[in-house]
Every structure is written in structure tokens, then in C-alpha cells.
Design a protein that fits this description.
Blueprint lengths: L4 H15 L28 E6 L3 H15 L2 E6 L2 H11 L7 E4 L2 H9 L8 H4 L14 E13 L24 E3 L4 H14 L1 H13 L3 E2 L3 H10 L4 E5 H11 L6 E5 L9 E8 L7 H10 L2 H11 L2 E2 L29 H10 L4
């Protein structure tokens, strides 16, 4: 049963309060395909789409421009942090002007879906992505995959010296030597996954242990990588593609920072996804569906694979050769549809003193 509007408003108010100070901007990185799925029902057309994008403008706008040029559809984009936009959607409810929500992580998508604010996507759209990397109820579809990794100072540490579990980062050996970005949506999704695997008490203890161990706080994954690459930070928790983007820019040989992928059973080994959902008021909007289909097209998926080094999720597009297979990284214990406890996660992070 969908929650009543009054209940959603109350939940939204609580979420917005919890997100205050934590709704940071999403991290920077952060041709319609001929074979895109065809809608099975006639949809309304108004020639425009309102997109709430939790992904960075520098990354997303080139694709939006291509979509507009190919279709003639005007896309009005509101850019902000994924967490901030999820909170806004909860506050706006059915009054939202948004047609599509493009999210940096599954947790925010799950939080919006949990309140019944998405329409169900056509099966041919959700079927374009393998199970395990998209919603289980058709409320949103995964677009790209990203793995959490540990960035480390390769000039001072060998790969063998890097912890193979985030649980080890609270040990005295790493006091003052680890960086995190607690206001970033990807970190919040990681903490949510930690809660699912180990429980709330363990996640809280880990966060408090990191604070006690003088964890270094940064605003973004990119800032963490820069600090590691400059030799001012030994370890940092980031998404994998930040390293590959920088390496493509300056050359791998010029990289002091290196990265280590965590084993799939570790709480830190989260393979999260970016994704998109169509808001319920736009259930019959042809342009909204066309935009989501475009983001799953070979053209868009290739762009993500080649320009941002994320894992393309739609069939037929290969990831960059340097990346390990995504199937070898996925933690089978995590159902991405369960990463919807955004409000509780934000509260736990805040209570630990990481705001």
C-alpha cells in the first residue's frame, strides 16, 4: 500500500532534518540508440523533461545535450547532491516538478522508491540490466556500476601492507592516516551496506572507532585521492573510477596513489550503482521514458565506460580492460534494493560526530 501524502510529508520532514549538513554535492568525476526498448503503451508527449540530477553537471550535461539534439526534447536539469535531491523529492512528494531522478547511488533511489514516489518502469527497460544491479520491483533501473576501493600511497606502502578489510582501519597503526568523505552519497551507501552486513551496532562502533582513530574528513572522493596522490594521506576510501580518470589524465606512471579492491565478503566491498527512476506524476510521459532509455543505450553506456571508467550495466558494452570483472567484486549478501535506509544511516553518521 502506498503511504498517504500526509505520512510522506512527515517522513520527508524528518529526513530533511536528518540530512541538514550532510546533503553535500555529489562528487565530481561525478544519440538515441536504434535498439532502445519501445514503450508498450501510448504515452503523453509535451516535448520537455525535468531532470533532477545527483550526478555532476560536467559529467552528465554532454549526454543531455546529445539526447536533446537527437530527439528535439528540451531537458531542464536541476543539479545538486544526490542526498539533497532525494530529500527534496521526499519533501515535494506528488507535487514535484521532476519527471526523472538520476542518482549517484542506489541508496537514494531506494529511499525515494520506499515512499512510493516512482512509477514502475516497463519490463523491457529493467530487463536491460542484469539482476543484482537494479531494483527488484521495477521502480528504478541501474545505469553504471562503481566499486568501493582503498586508495593508498604507493610511494610509502606496498599492496601487501594495505588492509584487506575496512574493519582494520580502526587499529592504532592507521591513526590519523585514513581519509573518508562522510557527506558523500557513496560513503553513506557504504555505511548502509555495512549496517546490512554487520548490523547497526557494528556500523556505529566502526564509525566511532574511526573518529577515535583521528580519521581525516574530506568533502569528496576526488579530494581524498588528491591527498593520497600528493603523499599527505596514506589511505582513503573512494570509488574506483576516480583513480582511473586521473590516471587517464596524467598517465599511470605519474600516479603516486594506487588502489586496492576489497574482497567481496568485506563490509567495504560494495559495488554500488548509479541509476534512474521516473516519478509517479510522469508515469505517462513519453519523453521521461525516452530519456531513461537513452541512458541505457549503447551510446550512453559507452560514454560512461570510456569517459568515466564506470562499469556499463546494459548488455553489449564492455568495461575498460584495466578493470576486474564486476561479477568478481559483487557482494552477494547485498541486495541494492535494500540500501534504502538513508535517513537512519545519515543519523548514525551524524551521531558518530562526522558532521
Amino acid at each position: 500500500m502506498r503511504p498517504r501524502p500526509g505520512r510522506r510529508a512527515a517522513l520527508a520532514a524528518a529526513t530533511v532534518a536528518a540530512l541538514a549538513g550532510l546533503a553535500a554535492c555529489s562528487s565530481p568525476s561525478d544519440r538515441a540508440a536504434e535498439d532502445t526498448p519501445t514503450p508498450t503503451t501510448a504515452l503523453a508527449s509535451d516535448g520537455a523533461v525535468v531532470l533532477y540530477s545527483g550526478r555532476n553537471e560536467a559529467l552528465v550535461q554532454p549526454l543531455i545535450d546529445e539526447f536533446e539534439a537527437a530527439t528535439g526534447v528540451d531537458v531542464e536539469v536541476r543539479y545538486d547532491g544526490t542526498t539533497a535531491l532525494a530529500a527534496l523529492l521526499l519533501e515535494e512528494g506528488e507535487r514535484t516538478p521532476a519527471d526523472v531522478f538520476l542518482s549517484q547511488d542506489a541508496g537514494a533511489l531506494g529511499a525515494v522508491a520506499k515512499e512510493g514516489l516512482f512509477t514502475v518502469l516497463p519490463e523491457e527497460v529493467t530487463a536491460a540490466v542484469p539482476a543484482g544491479f537494479t531494483s527488484t520491483d521495477g521502480s528504478w533501473v541501474g545505469l553504471t556500476g562503481r566499486s568501493r576501493v582503498i586508495a593508498y600511497d604507493g610511494a610509502d606502502l606496498t599492496a601487501a601492507q594495505v588492509p584487506d578489510s575496512v574493519l582494520d582501519l580502526t587499529s592504532p597503526e592507521w591513526t590519523g592516516r585514513v581519509g573518508i568523505a562522510p557527506t558523500n552519497a557513496s560513503f553513506q551507501a557504504f555505511v548502509t551496506a555495512f549496517r546490512l552486513i554487520e548490523g547497526d551496532a557494528a556500523a556505529t562502533a566502526w564509525l566511532e572507532g574511526m573518529v577515535a582513530n583521528d580519521v581525516q574528513v574530506f568533502e569528496s572522493n576526488g579530494a581524498i585521492l588528491e591527498a593520497v596522490d600528493a603523499g599527505t594521506l596514506d589511505l582513503g576510501l573512494i570509488n574506483h573510477y576516480y583513480w582511473f580518470e586521473k590516471a587517464a589524465e596524467v598517465g599511470e606512471d605519474a600516479m603516486r596513489a594506487q588502489i586496492a579492491f576489497l574482497p567481496p565478503g568485506d563490509p567495504g566491498a560494495l559495488v554500488n550503482v548509479t541509476g534512474a527512476g521516473i516519478l509517479a506524476p510522469a508515469a505517462d510521459d513519453a519523453e521521461a521514458l525516452a530519456l531513461v532509455e537513452f541512458l541505457l543505450s549503447e551510446q550512453a553506456q559507452t560514454y560512461f565506460a570510456e569517459q568515466t571508467f564506470e562499469y556499463p550495466l546494459a548488455a553489449g558494452v564492455a568495461a575498460a580492460d584495466a578493470l576486474p570483472p564486476i561479477e568478481d567484486l559483487r557482494n552477494e549478501e547485498i541486495d541494492l534494493s535494500d540500501l534504502d535506509g538513508l535517513q537512519e544511516t545519515v543519523e548514525i553518521i551524524s551521531a558518530a560526530g562526522l558532521t
